[in-house]
Amino acid sequence: MSIADFQNQKPFAYSNQTIERALRSLICSPFKFALFDAMRKNRVAISEITGSKGVEKGYTKRLLSELITDNELVWLIQVGVLRREVDGQGITDSFRLTPLGRQLVEQSLTKPWRNPTLSDRFYETVTRWLRIPF
Prior knowledge:
Elements: H1 16-28, H2 33-41, E1 44-45, H3 51-56, H4 66-79, E2 82-87, E3 90-97, H5 99-108, H6 118-130
Antiparallel strand pairs: 1-3, 2-3
């Protein structure tokens, strides 16, 4: 049995289109960078994101219901930025970053995300509404 060398692993190589789509989805989401930074370090339960708790922790831009939060998180899963946390009994209500999400969050530690433009919001809305395949 070989031992994996996690220190010298190369990051996944993503196309510019994939990175731009994922970044656009992150910046257009109702979540703040603090949520994704927390997910970079540990799993975050949906109960920590919804309602006033999410605003108090700096995770959301406004109060979000559990249904809206879940829909937004599921969209980020479909884009490839998040994944649901799994334990010994199955899927939980917690979320973590994927390697793509981790890469985008770690890049933003040195270069902050841009504010979404009107075209970002339009393109994101059309993509979500039509569920255009990536």
